[in-house]
Amino acid sequence: MNIAVGNDHRGVAAKQRLMDLLSGMGHTVADLGATGAASSDYPDYALPVAEAVAGGAADRGVLICATGHGMCIAANKVTGVRAVNCRDVVDAEMSRLHNDANVLCLSADLVGEDGMGRVVKTWLDTPFEGGRHARRLDKIAGYEQKR
Question: Which CATH architecture has domain 2-146?
Answer without folding.
Answer: 3-Layer(aba) Sandwich (3.40)
